[in-house]
Amino acid sequence: xxxxxxxxxxxxxxxxxxxxxxxxxxxxxxxxxxxxxxxxxxxxxxxxxxxxxxxxxxxxxxxxxxxxxxxxxxxxxxxxxxxxxxxxxxxxxxxxxxxxxxxxxxxxxxxxxxxxxxxxxxxxxxxxxxxxxxxxxxxxxxxxxxxxxxxxxxxxxxxxxxxxxxxxxxxxxxxxxxxxxxxxxxxxxxxxxxxxxxxxxxxxxxxxxxxxxxxxxxxxxxxxxxxxxxxxxxxxxxxxxxxxxxxxxxxxxxxxxxxxxxxxxxxxxxxxxxxxxxxxxxxxxxxxxxxxxxxxxxxxxxxx
Amino acid sequence: xxxxxxxxxxxxxxxxxxxxxxxxxxxxxxxxxxxxxxxxxxxxxxxxxxxxxxxxxxxxxxxxxxxxxxxxxxxxxxxxxxxxxxxxxxxxxxxxxxxxxxxxxxxxxxxxxxxxxxxxxxxxxxxxxxxxxxxxxxxxxxxxxx
Lengths: 304, 146
Hints:
The complex is a heterodimer. By secondary structure, chain A is mainly alpha-helical. Chain A folds into two domains: 34-179; 193-298, no CATH class. Helix content of chain A is 40%, strand content 4%. A two-stranded antiparallel sheet of chain A has the order 1-2. Chain A has a two-stranded antiparallel ribbon with strand order 3-4. The longest helix of chain A has 25 residues, at 2-26. Chain B is an all-alpha fold. Helix content of chain B is 72%, strand content 0%. Chain B is elongated. The A-B interface holds A 229, 232, 236-241, 246-249, 263-265, 268-278, 280-281 and B 33-34, 37-38, 40-41, 44, 85-86, 88-89, 127, 131, 134-136, 138-139, 142-146.
């Protein structure tokens, strides 16, 4: 009898060990192989700049309060408050020590699209790699080339202030297992190159869903609620629903959306507010065809 | 004793009503913003070729903006923090900056009135400059409540 019980216990322990090992394996950082980032050639700086504005890098990485050209010094330092603690945005200027000047393209690409830092560690999804995961290797290469042309800064941002267990980077493997996703976010009611470009800009580079889609208690996107609006992570107010089902923005025409992204004015000549001001300023720097693609995509997603 | 209590309560109620009638309601704030928005709309219509350039229209629109924004900070007296959900509490924390931002729009509109935009391109530049003032203040002090 005792032998049988021991056997059962041993089997259970074995299952637990295998399970733990599997979980450990599944939650390891998963960078893409070097080959994925090889042979991309000389970066196209014009496209790199377009990716730069579409990606909204300056909105978080510019030194807080900087204006005009000073915004292109990506010194970091902005404090991002979240329900999990305060994140301090890092320096991504080309400084070889404080910034990313010493990084390889593969390190940069894996940070952008896999949320894996230069030392092979998991990055916090406050950096929107769960959106940037959709970026093409070419866009990553062009952006990396463009970032290197910007001024260097020696600023070092303070470490994140996160309570246990959120300060355990290993736990991010579990988060990624549950929520990391580089596929389409929602079924589309239209197809064609323009809507596809809009999808790439909204779901990928523009990372619109990071604020406009509501999250569950673990910080993953709620399913079936793509761009349906969410509480403002910075405090009071709400981030609006931007699907065709929205009472306000849902009524806008594609041309209205294009004008808004270009000028900051709504069809009622109300003007953009809050953190959307910077986003709109970035969008205004894109070619008109990109704003039109975003508008076409926003009309093709499910109404919520 | 009871009379004094009732009198005090009545006085308090009257003061309460008085406060509510003073500047700073949601409707008053929104009415001013809508006036400015409407004026901006008239200027934008010219830049988009929906309306021909008309110096009188431009002048009226700029005058509306300059006059409306002048009175706007008065709509945020102490104690009116909760009157509209779109007004950020930061307005009362940084009242001087909030006023400075309103003054900037006022001064820019006055400047344009002194040297009235003479054609469609001039109106376009004016819209851009004034729009930047709108954005600068909304970025800091306006909450989205949709």
